[in-house]
Amino acid sequence: MDFSTEKIAGALREELHPLDEEANRLRQRLAELDAQRDRLNAALLALSGESQTKKRKRSGKPAATKAEVIDVIAGLLRDNTTLAPDDLKDLTKDKVANDLGKGLNGFALRFREALADPMFVQGPDGLIRLA
Questions:
Q1: pLDDT 10s digits, 59-93
Q2: Rounded to 10 degrees, what is the CA torsion of 67, 72, 77, 82?
Q3: Which carries the bigger pLDDT value, residue 87 or residue 47?
Q4: CB neighbours of residue 72 within 10 Å
Q5: CA distance 15 to 111
Q6: Radius of gyration of the chain (CA)
Q7: CA nearest to 112, candidates 99, 128, 97
Q8: C-alpha angle with apex 29: 26 to 32, nearest 5 degrees?
Q9: What residues contact 96, with CB distance under 8 A and at least 6 apart?
Q10: Residues 6 or more apart from 98 whose CB is under 8 A from it?
């Protein structure tokens, strides 16, 4: 690629990044709303005395392990040196779901457990880096 093509590609990537982040936030919000609707529908069924005949919908994807989450975080910090906790969580969640193809059940707990690993340090500025 020549310089002008690289410049255009870089500009397009910069525009794409916030769109990807927003799409991931919206997907997560939709999943939360679907889960809340399922709980409310189950409560309505319980109140009416009807039995729920359809099984709960599952993603069919196994959840990420603590070790997998640690590997993803370490890779992100190797690439970015330091990251804010919220940014690191969003990027990690995206990589776990999209790159590893894992489900996000228990992700918040796995992420907290992974950050407690001694290989990660949170500096006085609040940014997380490799120890």
A1: 578 999 999 999 999 999 999 999 999 999 999 99
A2: -90
A3: 87
A4: 23
A5: 28
A6: 19
A7: 128
A8: 155
A9: 64, 68, 69, 72, 102, 104, 107
A10: none
**Helix 107-115 vs helix 66-80: crossing angle, to nearest 10:** 60
Give the single-character DSSP code of 103.
B
Nearest to 17 by CA among 77, 91, 93, 74: 91
Helical (H) or strand (E) element with 120: strand 120-122
Q: What is the largest CA-CA distance in the chain?
A: 69
Q: Where residue 53 falls among pLDDT bands split at 50, 70, 90?
A: low
Report the distance separating Cα 22 and Cα 124, nearest Å.
29
Three-state DSSP class for residue 58: coil
Tell which residue, 22, 18, 116, has the closest CA to residue 73: 116
| pTM score | 0.56
HSE-CB for 67 with a 13 A CA cutoff: 0
